[in-house]
Amino acid sequence: MESEKDKYHEQLIAAEKRIDRLQSKTVAALNPHSAGVKEEVKDESPRDTPSSPVHSQSLANGVHSDEANEWESVAKVREGKIEELINENASMRQELFDLKLSMKYPPEELVKDNMHYKVLLIHASKLEHIISENQSEISGLKDEVESLKATRLELEEGVKAATEKATQEVRSMLVKRDNENARLREQRDQQVSELNERKQKDSYKLTSVNEIKALAESRSERIKILESEVKRLRTRLAAEANDEDLMTFLFKSTSEEVSYISDLKSRLAAADRRANASGNTPLTVIEAQAQLAEAHRRLEEYQIIFGKTPLDVSTLTEQLRLKESEIEKLRLLEKQRDQAEASLYTELEKLSAAWEALDRQVKGKVFDLAAMEERISKSSLEKAKSDNKFYSAMRDKEAIETERKNLARTLEKQGKLLERLSEGEKTLIARTSDLEREVKAWRQAVDKQKECSETLEKEVQQWQKRATGERERCDKLIYAIREHEDDLRKRREELRKAEEAVAKSKKEADKYAAKMKAMSHNHSSSANSREHDLQSEVDKCMTILKCSTCKMHMRNTVITKCMHCKADHESHVNFLDSFAWFSSSVLP
């Protein structure tokens, strides 16, 4: 296809070159005539010439007229050839465009004969058959689902009616029970109020007992504090006496039963056992073990200070700096602890004062115990009365309990009935859920088939839209190309008309030459008529000197190929450039 395009392009270029050559030959044939006319005008304008130059000029014009006739016949023949070539070029262009269009947008018959189209058509038919089968199956399933729904609705209505009936009976029994409960609640409230009154009376005794217990507990705590203080004082005395063993014993001891002498005896026995165990080994081993223990101890101290991993001097200095900061922090904490201890001692003093006040209060409460005992005796009498009321209430309660049991038996029967109904409902719900799952699975399959069919339809629509878009684009391109071809034909027609105008001007020049020859034989005419003739000749020459297309501007730049003025030539060149750009960018 590209080779044919290049071939047609070369043929078009060759045809345009032939047209340019023909135009250049025609202009070359016309140029001597225009030069002769200009020379005649220049020669005759300053002075009158004798008859011999006029005769020679007429002779020259006669010769030129014969040559012009010959060139005119040649131009006509070549013009016919040019028209034939132009028509052939246009038909070739149209044929080339039709071929390109058929290659880019193949016809429907060619597409239908394609193997890929046939495969897609078979696949689409299969999918349509599957979709139709699925739709028929879905319609059957829908009918089944509708029947199951109707059955379910009937069962639900029956269950609802039985349930409503049972609930109404239960509600009536519940109303009776609520009324009985309200009566019992009133009796209970009365008993509770009586009990609260008695509890309020007995609360004085209970508060006194609780106060005595609290007093005993506070005194036991005080005793423990004093014992711990005694222990601290003993350890302090042992530390001042530089007796480490006694201080260790005091820290270890938790009670007074363990004596210091028994502890010393046990420690002595342990030392003897260690000595007997070490007596069997040589002295060097004992010394080595002692040195090893000392080395381990010192190593542990260093490890406590510097850690287990070996460090360089900078790291050690950094750790020392950190340890110093920690020591400073601990010092500050020690100061804070001292201050806290001072405040703690002050609080202890306050607590001791409060404890003394509480002790005095307790003593006052003990003296009020006699009055409390009198209240207790009164409360015992009231308790006997309340017991009588309680027993009467218990009798009422037993009657209510029997009635409650009757109601419970009735409720149990109703509950069994409801359980049977609920089991039937559960089986129906399970069946409907299974059917709904099946329907859901079928719906999913249908949705997948619908999605597949929708995607195929979308693809078909996209291809159809693309085809319509390409057709519209092709129609627009065809319309634009035809417009440009029409414009090109119009411009060629204008060019032909311009060439015809040039030929007409040449004929007028021939007529003018013949007229000049006739005027050369008529020397007796007056000067006014000669000036008039000269003026008409000048006008005719001006028509030759002016542009043949616009007939307004002078031919300031003579182009030997087209005989147009510069402005028209530039507009023609711009048109040719725009057409070349259109053919290279728009056409594929």
Automatic annotation (TrEMBL):
Compositional bias segments (type: Polar residues): 48-60
Biological-process GO terms, alphabetical: chromatin organization; protein ubiquitination
Ranges for region Disordered: 24-67, 506-533
EC number from the UniProt entry: 2.3.2.27
Keyword annotations of the record: Chromatin regulator, Coiled coil, Metal-binding, Nucleus, Transferase, Ubl conjugation pathway, Zinc, Zinc-finger
Coiled-coil ranges per UniProt: 75-102, 131-243, 285-343
Enzyme class, spelled out: transferase
Pathway: Protein modification; protein ubiquitination
GO cellular component: HULC complex; nucleus
Subcellular location: Nucleus
Biased amino acid composition, Basic and acidic residues: 36-47
Record field: compositional bias (Low complexity): 515-528
GO molecular function: ubiquitin protein ligase activity; zinc ion binding
InterPro entries in UniProt: E3_ubiquit_lig_Bre1
Pfam family, any one: BRE1
Catalytic activity: S-ubiquitinyl-[E2 ubiquitin-conjugating enzyme]-L-cysteine + [acceptor protein]-L-lysine = [E2 ubiquitin-conjugating enzyme]-L-cysteine + N(6)-ubiquitinyl-[acceptor protein]-L-lysine
Family per record: Belongs to the BRE1 family.
Name by which UniProt lists this protein: E3 ubiquitin protein ligase
Organism classification: Eukaryota, Fungi, Dikarya, Basidiomycota, Agaricomycotina
